[in-house]
């Protein structure tokens, strides 16, 4: 007796469609998309002489540092300073490293 083959439906889709489907299916149930993804997207279009500025709670600063370390290793620099009069709030700036200082991924 031979095993019955299952019908597998295969489609080729764009990465943007993939992200859209995954994003919508994960909403409302603790999806895996990161809250830092908009920072990554902003950095992808950033000019060399510009910086992304955020105001974050002190606990969030380390989360952002870990995110860029994992997803953009050796590509960006994160610096922060306490907001005047707000000990729990920090100004955080994320800049692209000059091409000559970037670590090659591999």
Verbal overview:
This protein has 106 residues and is α+β, with helices and mostly antiparallel strands. The chain has a single domain (15-101), classed as Alpha-Beta Plaits (2-Layer Sandwich). 32% of the residues lie in helices and 24% in strands. It has a 3-stranded antiparallel sheet, covered by helices on one side. β2 and β3 (86-96) form a beta hairpin. The longest helix has 14 residues, at 58-71. The chain starts with 14 loop residues before the first helix and ends in a 10-residue tail after the last strand.
Secondary structure: helix percent = 25-40%
Radius of gyration from CA coordinates: 20 Å
Please indicate the percent range of residues in DSSP E strands (runs of 2 or more).
Answer: 15-25%
**Helix-strand pattern:** HHEHEE
Morphology call: elongated
Mean pLDDT: 82
The figure for the number of domains is 1
In the CATH hierarchy, the third-tier topology is known as Alpha-Beta Plaits
Q: Tell me the strand order in the biggest sheet.
A: 1-3-2
Helices, strands, pairings?
Elements lengths: L14 H12 L10 H8 L7 E6 H14 L4 E8 L2 E11 L10
Antiparallel strand pairs: 1-3, 2-3
What attributes characterize this protein structure?
24% strand; 3 helices
Provide a concise account of the structure shown.
This protein has helices spanning 15-26, 37-44, 58-71, and strands spanning 52-57, 76-83, 86-96. With 106 residues, it is α+β, with helices and mostly antiparallel strands. It has a 3-stranded antiparallel beta sheet, with helices on one face.
